[in-house]
Specification:
Elements: E1 2-4, E2 10-12, H1 20-33, H2 52-56, H3 58-67, E3 75-78, E4 90-93, H4 95-99, E5 107-110, E6 113-116, H5 117-124, H6 128-136, H7 141-144, H8 150-154
Antiparallel strand pairs: 1-2, 3-4, 5-6
Length: 164
């Protein structure tokens, strides 16, 4: 971004146009404001906006980012997905943390804990694909988290054993 001086020459306002943070700022505004952007339906069309302070000033967004823990490789995350981008609703997180914030995530409650499927995979060692398969097959919550091999679930509680 630049501004024109009285003598007709241009002066850079912040000098950060070619940084990753500037790209994040531009992408955030695009998905909220541009109906031709591929992500507009999930953002701008749903009423997700960029606060006026950030909309008008990259420098303001940059300053917030510095004091909020921005590092290269982190992504901007809205804490409440129903609210827009603003200093009180945003944070910097890893891609793994961001992926757990999708509205299409499945959350399951088992033994008093509610986690998304990726977290249940890490917690139980049961593969995500297995958990999803068991959900789609109509298994009970206990069957979904049963650690025995799949055959014991398909054929009831006991495996068929061949006579010796």
């Amino acid at each position: 971004m630049r501004t024109r001086r009285a003598d007709g020459t241009f002066e850079a306002i912040h000098g950060k146009r070619h940084t990753q943070l500037y790209s994040v700022w531009c992408a955030m505004k695009e998905r909220c404001n541009n109906p031709h952007n591929k992500s507009y339906l999930r953002y701008g069309n749903r009423g997700i906006k960029v606060c006026q302070e950030w909309e008008d000033s990259f420098s303001s967004f940059y300053e917030w980012s510095k004091i909020s823990g921005y590092q290269i490789g982190l992504t901007i995350d809205r804490i409440d997905n129903e609210k827009g981008y603003s200093p009180d609703n945003c944070r910097w997180v890893t891609t793994a943390q961001q992926n757990r914030n999708y509205s299409r995530n499945h959350y399951l409650t088992y033994q008093g804990k509610t986690l998304c499927i990726a977290d249940w995979e890490a917690e139980t060692g049961i593969g995500r694909a297995t958990i999803l398969y068991r959900i789609k097959a109509g298994k009970t919550i206990e069957q979904i988290f049963d650690k025995r091999d799949g055959r014991s679930l398909r054929y009831g509680k006991q495996l068929f054993l061949q006579a010796e």
